[in-house]
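Box S1 | Example of a co-folding query
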Amino acid sequence: MSGRATRRLWRVAGAGALGVLALLFVDRTEATVGVDIGTAVQALDPRAGDGAARHTEQVTYDDDDLELVATYLVTGGRLDAGAPPAHQELWAIAGQVLPPAQLAEIRQLNVVSDGPNGTLGMVHRSSMVADRWVLSLDRAETPTVLAETLVHELAHLVTLRRDDLRAGDEECGDHDVQIEIGCALGGSALADWAGAFWTDPTQPADFDREHFVSEYAASAVHEDLAESFLAYVAHPEEADTPALAAKLAFFDAHPELATLAAEVRIGLALSPAS
Ligand SMILES: [Zn+2]
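Box S1 (continued) | Returned holo structure for zinc ion
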């Protein structure tokens, strides 16, 4: 591909387990192809039973090059104390970025790697415990990249819940919107987003920078929402076209998302949206 999208990324200093993240904006040219951030939705397994909460679960990765390095349970926002310091530091970045309520929804951390770039991180819906998530983070990424990835994943956590999306092949209801990964349920931010900004929400769109904050955003409705949320939180000045401004204004009109964005900005010491 000829075009390369520049995007502002964060530089994070002092990302130790107890450190405070200081953020500076830096320009970085990022590769335009490759799955950089992922989402997987899996169905809840009714056979999981009451003991499920005490066990880790397997998730599947589309990326064959991704190595699963370690798996830990997370309880009430705290990582398994047996995790080594390097993995505690990864978790500390999640603690810095995610508000406490969303941090508490993560029941498992998978430390993964395919080297720098490539896959950065992803969330899977838990198949064992309702409304809980498995977070995967690539240990080869810098804290800067991981912090930004976590803001993107946060958008998934709050817009791909069971009240937002029904995964699977079932036909969508009258008020739902069929998207690539299932039915965005009527009244959800996800369905509103698809209706407002996508002409065909069932397949990838052609990227153009007037309408999409990144190439990855054009890959699917839910990725567009997550990438745009990241822009809303961290670099709203890049929404310099009417279409992008409308996407950022969407979050202003959805109080749960606007409030979350404000929480994340405070946690990361970013200035409030202008
Ligand atoms: Zn994503």
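Residues 1-36 have pLDDT under 50 and may be disordered. The CA atoms of residues 153 and 236 lie 18 Å apart.
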